[in-house]
């Protein structure tokens, strides 16, 4: 059976037999569909809404204008789906078995891709499972409206998961679970069914630990729980269109799509669990690929190899831009210099500028 929402689950003795049975049935269905935990919360997010507005006012979202779109809809689920009374929050582990993290990061000739992005794009997989969960609930409860979301709508998913009892929001802004760390996806079902709610996870087990803040290569954390996305490697390599600020390029190292450092540094990820989903296993051996190998891809190869993967989102131009920066950070070698020089006439002005930077870095003493 799916893990109940921490030790904060409601007292089923206080619920009517029908509600208690339906809640237990939801856990069983969630397990059958591959989710590791399920929790239920209401739609009140006033405290999180205030924090979001402060974060946006500070400009920490950078070019992610969608974070400021839709007014307060992001923190008010009932505006996203009128009539919403409850949010069902679930999590699904994504770390593939036998994935090596530290070794690939330490070898600067290797390409590092965030662990969540090595396999199939999770959006479709998780949303399909969530929709099936919603349909089962609908069949059992009768007439009911619902919508399933996985990063596909303006929803404060970590805040909702926290209030549904799935874990606490750590200093690295990730949702952390004592038994599973933070290597998992989140998804939500908005429903007008007045389901019994789980208690919020109110404990913060980070304590005085600042490992996640200290390890950040670009010092993107303004302080605990506050991330300046403009300095975050995930933002720079995925969200940002245009040139990567020069002062941040050395800190990117060999990370060409996303970054896991603030999770790698978290002691709670000692308890992370390997995913049982084969679709999350690395494709095309991208967990072992060299920078030069990936830099040699033409656009057709990029589109073919990244089909159905999160990596496709960055686009070919930004893919080359990111790898050029990583090659600039790689150990000095004639092979790297030759690859950069050969690629330069074939690419856009944006990529050429990053190649020029990389060539200059290759010439500098290390």
What does this structure look like?
The chain folds into two domains: 12-99 and 119-191, NADH Oxidase, CATH 3.40.109; 211-363, no CATH class. The strands form four sheets. The protein has a four-stranded antiparallel beta sheet with strand order 1-2-7-4, with helices on both faces. A two-stranded parallel ribbon has the order 3-10. It has helices at residues 17-32, 46-57, 77-80, 102-106, 122-141, 157-163, 211-215, 233-239, 249-252, 261-264, 291-295, 299-305, 315-329, 334-343, 349-363, and strands spanning 37-41, 86-93, 112-113, 146-149, 168-169, 175-176, 184-191, 221-223, 226-227, 255-257. The N and C termini lie far apart (54 Å). The chain has 366 residues and is an alpha+beta fold. Strand 8 and strand 9 form a beta hairpin. 43% of the residues are buried. It is built from 15 helices and ten strands. Helices cover 37% and strands 11% of the residues.
């Amino acid at each position: 059976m799916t893990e109940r929402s921490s030790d904060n689950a409601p007292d089923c003795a206080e619920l009517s037999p029908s509600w208690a049975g339906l809640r237990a049935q939801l856990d069983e269905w969630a397990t059958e569909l591959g989710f590791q935990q399920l929790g239920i919360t209401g739609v009140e997010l006033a405290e999180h809404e205030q924090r979001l507005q402060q974060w946006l006012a500070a400009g920490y979202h950078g070019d992610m204008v969608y974070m400021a779109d839709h007014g307060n809809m992001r923190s008010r689920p009932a505006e996203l789906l009128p009539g919403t009374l409850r949010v069902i929050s679930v999590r699904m582990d994504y770390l593939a078995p036998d994935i090596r993290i530290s070794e690939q990061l330490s070898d600067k000739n290797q390409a590092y891709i965030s662990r969540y992005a090595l396999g199939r794009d999770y959006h479709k997989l998780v949303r399909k499972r969530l929709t099936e969960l919603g349909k089962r609930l609908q069949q059992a409860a009768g007439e009911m409206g619902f919508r399933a979301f996985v990063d596909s709508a303006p929803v404060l998913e970590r805040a909702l998961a926290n209030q549904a009892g799935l874990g606490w929001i750590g200093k690295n802004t990730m949702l952390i679970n004592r038994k599973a760390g933070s290597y998992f996806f989140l998804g939500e079902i908005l429903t007008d069914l007045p389901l019994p709610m789980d208690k919020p996870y109110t404990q913060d087990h980070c304590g005085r630990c600042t490992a996640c803040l200290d390890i950040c290569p670009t010092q993107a954390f303004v302080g605990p729980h506050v991330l300046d996305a403009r300095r975050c490697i995930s933002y720079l390599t995925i969200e940002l269109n245009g040139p990567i600020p020069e002062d941040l390029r050395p800190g990117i190292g060999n990370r060409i799509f996303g970054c896991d450092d603030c999770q790698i540094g978290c002691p709670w990820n000692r308890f992370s669990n390997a995913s049982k989903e084969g679709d999350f296993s690395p494709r095309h051996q991208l967990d072992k690929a060299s920078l030069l190998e990936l830099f040699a891809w033409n656009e057709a190869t990029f589109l073919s190899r990244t089909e159905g993967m999160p990596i496709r989102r960055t686009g070919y131009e930004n893919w080359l831009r990111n790898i050029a920066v990583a090659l600039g950070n790689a150990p000095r070698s004639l092979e790297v210099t030759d690859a950069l020089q050969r690629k330069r006439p074939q690419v856009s002005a944006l990529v050429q500028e990053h190649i020029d930077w990389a060539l200059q870095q290759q010439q500098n003493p290390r």
